[in-house]
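Q: what sequence does this backbone want?
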């Protein structure tokens, strides 16, 4: 009985601490421009959203394929800036390595016009890095919004319930900067954002999840080379710590304590949120691990 009460007290104390921490974060973030669903919806130009990752399969697309991507809206992830295409939206999570981040900022400054692309930041990720928002390139600061996603319980049962709650919020149109769930990687959160923005087709391009190679490993780009130099040093020591694991970190079984693999997460999102709301998910590369869970997109 005493053990039961100790556990109950610890659980209540942890929830109280988490609520207080969230309250403080929510007050902090209000000093920034927050995610406003109606304002972002006004920037929509299509019913299709391409979510752009950084897998090498991007390099297999031809000019006609990219013209079709350009004719629709797109949401790029993290290091996509080393590609020539300029997206409608850009989800930017910052690396631990600030020198590597510098070369991402330099590439964005060189390539992205002010107020063209909407940059979306995860506030928890941003505040954990030693930089001021005002120091970022104007092409970012002129059109940036922040969200404060929730890191939900990792059991599939709990996750299903939270996705159902998200679906109901979407139906009621009661979406805010606190509505989204963040687990294992950017693509899970960005898919939720795409659904919230009202896209009926969401197409994964360069989201292969097969290994840790990226398209910018195979192109000539000075900022990409410098970025990889510093990230490569960090990955060298991570590999020595974790073993020579080639699988993409979002599907690695040794990281399942962070949540189910991305393939399972997107499958759950598709079942609990997308299909009931009439949203279709596609993947461009038939070599992607996602091709087992959703149709391959036909140009």
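A:
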């Amino acid at each position: 009985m005493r053990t039961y009460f100790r556990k109950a007290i610890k659980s209540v104390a942890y929830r109280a601490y988490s609520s207080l921490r969230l309250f403080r974060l929510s007050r902090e973030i209000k000093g920034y421009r927050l995610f406003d669903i109606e304002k972002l919806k006004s920037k929509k130009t299509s019913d299709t959203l391409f979510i752009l990752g950084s897998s090498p399969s991007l390099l297999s697309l031809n000019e006609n394929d990219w013209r079709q991507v350009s004719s629709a809206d797109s949401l790029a992830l993290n290091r996509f800036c080393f590609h020539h295409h300029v997206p409608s939206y850009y989800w930017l999570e910052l690396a631990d390595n600030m020198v590597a981040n510098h070369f991402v900022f330099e590439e964005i400054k060189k390539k992205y016009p002010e107020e063209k692309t909407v940059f979306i930041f995860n506030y928890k990720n941003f505040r954990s890095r030693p930089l001021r928002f005002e120091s970022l390139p104007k092409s970012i600061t002129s059109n940036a919004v922040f969200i404060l996603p929730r890191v939900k319980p990792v059991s599939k049962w709990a996750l299903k319930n939270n996705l159902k709650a998200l679906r109901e919020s979407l139906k009621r149109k009661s979406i805010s900067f606190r509505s989204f769930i963040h687990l294992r990687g950017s693509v899970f959160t960005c898919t939720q954002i795409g659904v919230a923005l009202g896209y009926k087709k969401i197409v994964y391009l360069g989201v292969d999840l097969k290994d840790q190679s990226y398209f910018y490993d195979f192109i000539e780009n000075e900022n990409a080379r410098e970025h990889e130099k510093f990230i490569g040093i960090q990955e060298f020591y991570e590999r020595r710590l974790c073993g020579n694991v080639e699988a993409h970190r979002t599907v690695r079984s040794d990281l399942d304590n962070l949540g189910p693999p991305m393939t399972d997460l997107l499958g759950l999102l598709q079942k609990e949120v997308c299909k009931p709301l009439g949203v279709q998910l596609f993947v461009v590369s038939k070599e992607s691990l996602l091709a087992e869970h959703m149709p391959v997109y036909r140009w």
